[in-house]
Please model this.
Amino acid sequence: MNLQTDKEQTQSQVGNRQPSGRWRALGETWWTALQLGLTSFGGPIAHLGYFHQTYVRRKQWLDEKSYADLVALAQFLPGPASSQVGIGVGVMRAGLWGGLVAWLGFTLPSVLMLMIFAYLMQTFDPGSAGWIQGLKIVAVAIVAQAVLGMAGKLASGPVRAAVALIAMAVVLLWQSPVSQVTVIALAGLSGLWLFKPQANEEAAPEMKMPIGRRAGLFCLGAFVVLLVGLPLLKGVTDNGWVAIVDSFYRAGSLVFGGGHVVLPLLESETVLNGWMSKEDFLTGYGATQAVPGPLFTFAAYLGVLIQGIPGGIVATLAIFLPGFLLIVGAMPFWNGIRRSPKLQGMLTGMNAAVVGILLAALYHPIWTSSIHGPLEFVIGAGLFGMLMFWKSPPWLVVIIGALAGQFLL
Model:
């Protein structure tokens, strides 16, 4: 019988570890993700900077190249890219359960906050708070540090730097939901002949993959079945819960890179369906900018307005489920692809493009929406110095940035 796959072999290897080691890995994954969920402000690109600081530099759970490859994979897939990177790190750290607790830890704080906002939106106005501006400046410092660190290793040399700069220019000048995916794909194709592997070149590090291909195929199949089946089920039933799951699952399935691109989809699914007013929708969007964590948790706020607390939970699970299925489904195949000698050049080009995309995001929307004058620049420079030179923890930088925004801006 050839039914035993690499998943079962991996499980047997993992099973040789002591149970306390597995539980410790899960606990560390949960606690680290929860800390990130409480302090990661600034949107998906800023989140990648926080992840890089924590998982690569401080914790050293994976190397620079593996992190960049994971970011490139998440950018290729529909769904919330930063959350998918966090899920991927959790999977490599502690298996499928590690991916789940990494997602839960990173997502739970903002979900709870936005559920509260759904009830307090009539008396709470986040748009006028100075500390929100301070948090935006924190995002500038975090992303600047990430770009500088990744550029030194992934965009070094004239050719890689050129790829990164071209990627930056294209993403800035072509504002489109598909621009990032297109740029990464073209950079990968150009890398096939620009970056041919050398005989003495160091091999790509092995990405830890505690799940196997059968599990990956199951997740990819489930993604397709739900994407096709939910609209059909909605068409033959009047169940309101099916309609909620279908709307939010579809929104999470059709967005590349996550972030603000999901907003028009959610507006069409909620406001145009008569579930809420446009004013309520926009108020919730403003509240979402004031909380840490992924922007997709906006679904928690919307779900509460539609069907109370149960609606918030269901909407959150539905919008994140496609991204979870895709990243878990693709990861077992990603390791073989990235270690193929023929594709090393492609991944080199893709990694350089990721640096360019991060650099573009540092300028717009992060810099343009945060730095409006000399005082903002001074605060940003000070926060960057705390991270870069004095090695201050990100949570302390977040607190100081918020206080500076509240009392100085």
